[in-house]
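To assess whether ligand presence alters the predicted conformation, the chain was also submitted together with pyridoxal-5'-phosphate. Input:
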Amino acid sequence: MSARSSRVLHRSLRETPPKAIGGEGIWLIAEDGRRVLDASGGAAVSCLGHQHPRIIDAMAKQASKLVYSHTSFFSSEPAEALADHLVGDEPGGLAYAYFVSGGSEAIEASIKLARQYFVERGELQRQRFIARRQSYHGNTLGALAAGGNAWRREPYSPLLSSAFSHVTPAFAYHEKRDNESEGDFTARLAAELEAEFQRLGPDTVAAFIAEPVVGATAGCVAAPEAYFRAVREICDRHGALLILDEVMCGMGRTGTTHAWEQEGIAPDIQAIAKGLAGGYQPIGAMLASRTIIDTIRQGSGAFQHGHTYLAHPLACAAALEVQRVIGEEKLLDRIKELGRYLERRLTERFGNHRHVGDIRGRGLFQAIELVADRATRAPFDPALKLNQKIKAAAFEGGLACYPAGGTVDGRSGDHVLLAPPYIATKDDIDMIVDRLGTAVDQALRSINH
Ligand SMILES: Cc1ncc(COP(=O)(O)O)c(C=O)c1O
């Protein structure tokens, strides 16, 4: 289809993508009948693959009973059941769930809840948020201001709040100095965060916000072992909140329901989305601690926020069934096992590749980073658009993956993110690695490497 004949405003205004007309487990089917292996679930969304019969059935049942009611009048059975499922046993002290329509909305709610909490406590001076460079928290203006990706921020920078400042990410591959141990690196990052609190005035900071495993903008970057414990300690010492953005890395993706479970800490507020309903419905959620909600309950008595589609019953029903399937089919164990297999297969295929500098990630959330020179870790010239060439070559070869650029500093660097569904098999993983290998080599050849 030519760009002119589509009225949909697509991501590219020059090209109209092919229509997807069907899905079947790990496969997407295009209008010309082509089957594409969905190795990243779009952007780490489709955690149970496509057209899972149990989810379709649960949605049909809910649709036949009640699709929508406004939260200013009613709660709904699926919203109550989903909240019980997620926070009924108060994981890490998170006791309440606020259901929105996606990741950016979950982040906006998290930022506003943190601010309102301090307003209600009479700490009006707490209006600063510290985040990290090379992070992504969403594209609405509050979430974009929190995010630290230079390229995404640039055109909108005059509109972005100066309440947000950014520190160095826990990205060892690029930020750790050669003469530094992992412990030294963590200590340096902690000292930088402490210095940022001091620069701003420790009692002006409302929260520190971070992705436990950085997704889209850096490619599956987990922090060094003690990093989040150090961050938690600094926040606690200064009375600031810790907001963790698990929109991409959460809901089982890394092998535990919450990625923070692997860090030995818990947040005060958490954003989740993609894997919550696996793309069956658009839904995200903010999870919040009992302390925060009790403070507001005893103060003004209401979170001063809201959207039309809060706690949408059909979206909640889809999410609830996705979470039940993950639990009942013990998919977390499978993610851990398949994750190890994916890492092994990626290492076999790319471990000695002269243009793959790093293979990293957790569970079914893994990435490779492309470099011009492995010794210096120098990236390719961004003008070569290597990541886009890999994406195109992979798609041509029947593989949908999630390559992106700007890995190093928001402008240069290329990585490919993989986030296969939790229902994938070892054969699927073999096929993903095989097709990715072909695509990477083909793309490199096209830029004469
Ligand atoms: C870590 C993280 N936070 C927030 C968002 C924004 O979510 P959404 O695109 O659903 O608004 C994303 C999306 O990729 C994300 O990866």
